[in-house]
Amino acid sequence: MGQPPFSAPPRGCGLSLRLSVRVVQCQALGDLLPPFLSMKCSNPLGIFSFRSQCFFHCGNGSSLNGTSKLSCASNGTWNAPRPSCTEPEMTFGTGLLISAGVGFASAVSLLLLGGLVFLIASHLSKRAHKYHLKTRDFAVLGELENPAYEEG
Hints:
Layout (H helix, E strand, L loop, with lengths): L5 E2 L10 E2 L17 E6 L10 E6 L4 E3 L3 E3 L12 E3 L5 H40 L4 H4 L13
Antiparallel strand pairs: 1-2, 3-4, 4-6, 5-7
Protein name: Sushi domain-containing protein
Pfam family, one: Sushi
InterPro entries: Selectin_superfamily, Sushi/SCR/CCP_sf, Sushi_SCR_CCP_dom
């Protein structure tokens, strides 16, 4: 069953008492906390022992389900179950804002893509026009005439 809290003094000339105390332990609150839940504990007599207190907080706009403070009691149990966090629900305004943002981003993307297609088509058109030979350039010359070799 364990050692008694007090033991008999050893035989000899002096009187000495040896005090042995077992600290009550509460169940560990777990290494993995639920999403958004943070925990900070004070452990005056040992980790998760009698008089330990743990404080809980939810981040990212989530709300705490349960108590924000747990205490380890003298019987080795926590005063309440470990809390959890509830993710915030999306409000109508937030949903509307997200929808508008996605719509705006889509419109800008389409405009940029259309502008890019126009620039590419314009560039290719100018390039093709540069190398395009027109029939009027040959209308002045006869079939075998070359102005560089004319006598004159």
